[in-house]
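G., the chain you wanted modeled:
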Amino acid sequence: MSEEQPNNPLHGITLEAILQKLVDYYGWESLGRRISINSFNLDPSLKSSLTFLRRTPWAREKVERLYLRTNFSVPPKVRRAGTAKPDHAPKKASAAGRGRAPKQARKASKVPEKSSPSLPPDTPGLKTSLPGTQDTGTS
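Predicted structure as tokens:
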């Protein structure tokens, strides 16, 4: 195991040292947001996290990648409560959010209504009474 690994930037750094440095830099809460692992979010401790990371290769890789990406010489960005970024890309605005009617409403509006030709209200011979009522014939 004492082979030279010139291309491995993590050579000689223990998993415990990596995790301790990440916890010191980000804190458990921020680390749990960045890497969704229960041992970071539910009653976090160095011992339980190390046990999990040693047994779970995909989780260890995520921690190692975060360690390599982190610039420890710059202080971490401090976010105020309620301003945490989502872990996914923002969703597209809905049709209503873009100032357009939803697709179903647009389709419904294209259906022509059956209507009689419009006549001006003062046209002679136009009945203004409703069906079922009697027209007195007096105007």
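The first helix runs from residue 15 to 26.

Shout if anything looks off.
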